[in-house]
């Protein structure tokens, strides 16, 4: 019997979508207003889900407090109120699109979750735009 537990979180961050190897005009054509050289921000919503077998001793798949601590340490502290392009090492050479942010978050959390568990990250960039990543 496999069960999924989920924990919601949020963080606020600024970013700019652009490629350093493209001209401003090409970046503007592809990324539009998200290519603003002065950056722009989002109030990101995050849902992290872990699926696995229920531990017969505890009744948990994973203690939600443990999951909350992992999210706080791996996502909220390093990303919240940061400029992703300038302040977060993972995005120095990686365009911080919602897709790339979701994959980076998944990789950071995956290192802290036992391999027996499946992991899914849903990142809401806006109320209408979100990305889901479950690993490769």
TrEMBL record:
SUPFAM superfamilies: Tetrahydrobiopterin biosynthesis enzymes-like. Binds 1 zinc ion per subunit. It is an enzyme of class 4 (lyase). Pathway: Purine metabolism; 7-cyano-7-deazaguanine biosynthesis. It catalyses: 7,8-dihydroneopterin 3'-triphosphate + H2O = 6-carboxy-5,6,7,8-tetrahydropterin + triphosphate + acetaldehyde + 2 H(+). The active site is at 34 (proton acceptor), 81 (charge relay system), 125 (charge relay system). InterPro entries: 6-PTP_synth/QueD, 6-PTP_synth/QueD_sf. Keywords: Lyase, Metal-binding, Queuosine biosynthesis, Zinc. It comes from the Bacteria. Zn(2+) binds at residues 15, 40, 42. Its cofactor is Zn(2+). GO terms for molecular function: 6-carboxytetrahydropterin synthase activity; metal ion binding. One of its GO terms (biological process) is tRNA queuosine(34) biosynthetic process. Its EC number is 4.-.-.-. Pfam families: PTPS. Gene3D superfamilies: 6-pyruvoyl tetrahydropterin synthase/QueD. Belongs to the PTPS family. QueD subfamily. This is 6-carboxy-5,6,7,8-tetrahydropterin synthase. It comes from Flavobacterium nitrogenifigens.
